[in-house]
Structure formats: structure tokens, C-alpha cells
Design brief:
two-stranded antiparallel sheet, 97 residues
């Protein structure tokens, strides 16, 4: 025979208004913070549209993967420039055209 399990939250549970207030407070804090972050990132993408290449860390070269010697080859991801176009700038360019 299974023991009877009580419901954890009912419509008359006194903790529900407190949870709703906490959720509203979190939304009131996180939404403006997200907007500020988004505006800051948009300004960064406008002023500096390029960032370091993740594969070569901005050097233009990286170690060959299957080489027995530590030979460095040109980075194909960034065409040996060491730069990549930021995601935000890529989205901006797509929306502009």
C-alpha cells in the first residue's frame, strides 16, 4: 500500500503570493540589467566590430593538430588575420541589408 502524498502547492497555499512577489522583483531587476548589457554590447560591436579569433587567439597561426613536430600553420578560420567578426556585428550587418 502506498502512503498518501500531500500536494505541495495549492491555490490556498500562503507561500504563493510571496513567490509571485519574488518573481516580479527578479523580473524588475533582471530586465533592465539585460537591456543595459544589450546596449553596451551593441555599442562595443559598433566601435570595435572585430574580436580575437578563438582558434588562434589573435595570432594568425596555430599548432598543427596531427603534426609530430610542433609546427605552426596559418589559421584558416580567420585567414591568418587573427580577427573575427563579432556575432552582434554579424547580426547588425544581416539586418541592415
Amino acid at each position: 500500500m502506498r502512503p498518501h502524498l500531500a500536494a505541495t502547492a495549492t491555490l490556498t497555499d500562503p507561500s504563493l503570493p510571496a513567490l509571485a512577489a519574488l518573481t516580479g522583483y527578479a523580473l524588475a531587476v533582471l530586465l533592465p540589467a539585460a537591456v543595459v548589457w544589450l546596449l553596451g554590447y551593441a555599442i562595443a560591436c559598433a566601435l570595435a566590430p572585430f574580436g580575437k579569433c578563438r582558434r588562434c587567439q589573435g595570432e594568425g597561426k596555430h599548432a598543427a593538430r596531427l603534426s609530430l613536430t610542433a609546427r605552426r600553420t596559418w589559421c584558416r578560420r580567420c585567414d591568418a588575420t587573427g580577427l573575427r567578426l563579432r556575432v552582434g556585428r554579424r547580426i547588425w550587418n544581416h539586418l541592415r541589408h
